[in-house]
Amino acid sequence: MKNDDCIFCKIANGEIPSRTIYEDQLFRVILDLNPATKGHALILPKDHSASLYELPEETAAAVLVLAKKLAVILREKLGCDGLNLVQNNGEAAGQTVSHFHLHMIPRYTDDGQKISWIPGKPAQEELDEVRKKLTE
Ligand code: 5GP
Ligand code: ZN
After folding, report:
1. What's the 6 CA to ligand 2 centre distance in angstroms?
2. Atom of ligand 1 at shortest distance to CA of 30?
3. What share of the chain is helix, strand, coil (3-state, %, to 5)?
4. Residue 77 phi/psi, 5° resolution?
């Protein structure tokens, strides 16, 4: 299903032109307008899901299969040295477009980009408490 107010619905379904690098029945893959690196691409499902939480399981499974295929193509054609997959859900996590998308960010040795976090140093008890919360 499409959402009339969603820009990625319009792009994914070809109503707004984009630099498409791959398309099938379920997905369109486009170049990001503000790429982190050369070849930064976005996998967009054609059906609207706001985020991973709403994404149907079959689409979730298919998206990683597609990412794997594209990973090989990006390496072969662009000669990247690595690849980050990034997927933001919710404003707190940096999501700016509320239509599920998977970033594929080719990495090049010394490309100067940073996709990182500050490592925490929690007490062992805190880790135990989190594990308990998540498993009980
Ligand atoms: P988010 O922060 O939601 O994970 O990522 C949104 C991404 O979409 C950003 O990297 C941004 O550059 C990209 N983007 C936003 N609008 C457009 C657009 O109209 N066309 C394309 N190709 N990329 C877009
Ligand atoms: Zn949408």
Report:
1. 4
2. 22
3. 30, 20, 50
4. -85, -30
Tell me the residue ranges of DSSP E strands in the chain: 20-23, 27-31, 41-45, 82-86, 102-107
Q: What separation in Å is there between the alpha carbon of 132 and the centre of ligand 2?
A: 36
Q: What is the dihedral of CA 21, 23, 26, 32, to 10 degrees?
A: 20
Is the Cβ atom of 97 under 6 angstroms away from ligand 1?
yes
User: What would the pLDDT profile of 14-61 be if each residue is shown by its tens digit?
Assistant: 999 999 999 999 999 999 999 999 999 999 999 999 999 999 999 999
| Residues near 96 by beta carbon (within 8 Å), at least 6 away in sequence | 88
What is the average pLDDT score of the chain?
97
Q: Is residue 96 over pLDDT 90?
A: yes
